[in-house]
Amino acid sequence: MTRLELRDVRKSFGALEVLAGVSLDVGAGEFVSILGPSGAGKSTLFQLLTGAIRGEGEMRFDGAPLDGARFAFMPQRDALTRAAMQRWLEGMWQSHRWTALLITHDVREAVLLSDRIYVLSARPARVVREVAVPLPRPRTESAALAREAAAIEAGILDTLLGQPTPINDHPMERRND
Asked: Sign of torsion, CA 56 41 107 155?
């Protein structure tokens, strides 16, 4: 069941187009991240989701128009606190299976926490890739998982840096070129 659905979400500030038709979905109990380069529009998307600003397109939560009231956020902190927060967040997600959407610029954080990752282009942002993260949970620091996570991170970084890698045969990975 889809909990959060965004279809063709657009936002401009005057002549500056920030979001150019972002579409994505988050299923019930799923942990999804949105990644993009600095200045891509991640903060603008967050403001739209929380109702702080208005844009164009469709945003629904449980099938109803999104009112921004169902979102919580954690501000960025220094690296040590951030690592502790990531462990706490994963533990809470494991316990409660909340539907979670993380907006970040940290590729490793997205891979550590997510079931799926949407990769945004530079501004004006659009989804250019959707990546499944098929790593077992809870996510540990084992060498085997580290190798698999590093391969996923490398593919995402290649996309962000404009050097796309071939699509895996995984059915959940899609590129929106």
From this structure: positive
Check which CATH number belongs to the domain holding 147 and give it: 3.40.50.300
Per-residue pLDDT reduced to its tens digit, 131-170: 999 998 888 767 667 889 999 999 999 999 986 544 443 4
Tell me if residue 145 falls in helix, strand or coil: helix
Question: With helix as H, strand as E and coil as C, how does 91-123 read?
Answer: HHHHHHCCCEEEEECCHHHHHHHCCEEEEECCC
- φ/ψ region of 147 (left if φ > 0, alpha if ψ in -120 to 50, else beta) reads alpha
Residues 6+ apart with CB under 8 A from 129: 118, 119, 156, 159, 164, 173, 174, 175, 176
Is the peptide bond preceding residue 65 cis, with omega within 30 degrees of 0? no
Structural domains of the chain, count: 1
Q: Which residues pair with 7 in a beta bridge?
A: 58
pTM for the whole thing? 0.84
Query: What domain range is 170 assigned to?
Result: 2-175
Number of H helices, E strands in the chain: 4, 9
